[in-house]
Amino acid sequence: MANTILVGAQWGDEGKGKIIDVLTEDAEIVVRTQGGNNAGHTVLVGGKKYVLHLIPSGILRPGKTCVIGNGTVIDPIGLMGEIVGLRAMNIKVGKNLLISETAHVVFPYHRELDALRELGKGKKKIGTTKRGIGPCYGDKAARTGIRVVDLVRPERLEPLLKAKIKENNEVFRAFGVKPLSFAKVLNEYAAAGKFLAPFVADTVVYLHHATQRKAGILFEGAQGTFLDIDHGTYPYVTSSNTTAGGACTGSGVPPHRMHRVMGVMKAYTTRVGEGPLPTEDKEISDMLHGLGREFGATTGRARRCGWFDAVATRYATMVNGIDELAVTNLDGLDTLKTIKVCVEYRIGRRRVEHVPNNIEQLAECKPVYQEFPGWETSTSGARKWGDLPPKARSYLKAIAQMTGAKLKIASVGPGREETIFL
Ligand code: IMP
Fold it and tell me: Which of 56, 73, 140, 359 could be disulfide-bonded to 136 (CB atoms 3.0-4.6 Å)?
């Protein structure tokens, strides 16, 4: 398999987990390169549902090696829980999982700060997952973070953690929040460090050797293009580079070793959390929620829903260099008589062809829609291109063309078998 970077082309929750699982069949190694347990990838295998947060979904296939790369932020208690949970479901987690020494560690003060900052923002809150992601990446950028290499060495962890807890407790006292107990946090995190130590490795060197022997590597993106800290709808974003470049910095694999970028997008648009969503629409929201669809895997929150936004996905193609597309959740549109696609934005009478960087401007953008006739029949039984109703095929071709990349996969359900390859 060509070394493949897989990214979300929208606001996250594009169904990447399932596509990664399908592509993993041909890969030897699967790497997570950014984000933390704010992500939630749901994968359905043989009728069993697995929800993964930090561990790459490659773990569900025997014989694959999964890497949690240096660009991620790791909540050790959450990760330990995920490993224990998978083992309880008879999934092997041992030598097939490697954790980067240089990934940063999420501590309870990060989660507390995340919650406090959100509270302080009031109506302007970001709507974070409250997993401490932003404050942890903040410490990394400020060079005051604690890394996995420290977590697994109690003699290093103790002084570093002591200083961080002292510093953060002063902030908590100022906010009238109960300070953290250093002894309690140290105990808990040192134990987690001991549990995780056998998985810890220099993953950059491991991946370097893997590229030399031409092992197929899949870089699994978390969140989506418009949640990227640089290219997303700032400040309503997450704190990592969710776009293709993040796969290089977050793994240590250089750009010229990457062979293709696949973008995953839903046949419509969703977003969790706050921030502008130009094509948000009550009709499609009510319809999808009525079907029990579009509730978050990590927080259970109802996702905001809208029509497919080709202005956004075109932008995603530009920023990520998307070569190939996987369109998911086509079956979500099965009951609609008419389907809308946003082909451009307007502010007043002015045409806006790219997603504006100014968030106030983006909030003012009104979508201009092109309408497509719905196919009004179930697509979930389709297994090949020819099984799809002609109107569904036309719709898929049109959104791929507007996005500017080659359609490779269409997904009509959460199961592995509910996948059409072109
Ligand atoms: P944080 O990553 O928890 O800081 O949240 C920042 C923003 O990213 C919020 O709008 C979250 O809802 C969103 N977000 C974070 N992780 C995911 C994800 O896995 N899927 C979709 N949205 C996410």
Answer: 73
Catalytic residue among 21, 41, 139, 309: 41
* 13 is known as an active-site residue: yes
Q: How far does residue 291's CA lie from ligand 1's centre (Å)?
A: 23
Q: Is 39 in the pocket of ligand 1 (CB under 6 A)?
A: yes
Distance 126 CA to ligand 1 centre (A): 9
How many whole angstroms from 125 Cα to the centroid of ligand 1?
A: 12
Report d(CA 197, CA 156) in Å as an integer.
Answer: 14
Task: Find the length of the chain.
Answer: 422
Q: Hey, where are the domains in the chain?
A: 4-96+202-421, 104-199
CA distances from 355 to 165, 233, 310, 345, 362 (A): 41, 9, 10, 8, 7
User: Does the annotation mark 139 as catalytic?
Assistant: no
* C-beta 133 within 6 A of ligand 1: yes
Determine if the peptide bond prior to 235 is cis (ω within 30°): yes
Pocket test for ligand 1, best of 227, 240, 269 (most atoms within 8 A of CB): 227
Q: Tell me the CA–centroid distance for residue 45 and ligand 1, in Å.
A: 25
Fold of the domain built from segment(s) 104-199? Adenylosuccinate Synthetase, subunit A; domain 2 (1.10.300)
Q: How far is CA 87 from CA 82, 92, 93, 136, 239, in A?
A: 9, 6, 7, 28, 30
Smallest Cα–Cα separation from 196: which of 81, 63, 66, 87? Answer: 81
Closest C-alpha residue for ligand 1 atom 21: 12
d(CA 12, CA 101): 27
**How far away, in angstroms, is 226 Cα from ligand 1 center?**
10
Tell me which of 3.40.50.150, 3.40.440.10, 3.40.309.10, 3.40.80.10 is the CATH number of domain 4-96+202-421. Answer: 3.40.440.10
Query: What atom in ligand 1 is closest to the CA of residue 134?
Result: 4
38 lines ligand 1 (CB under 6 A): yes
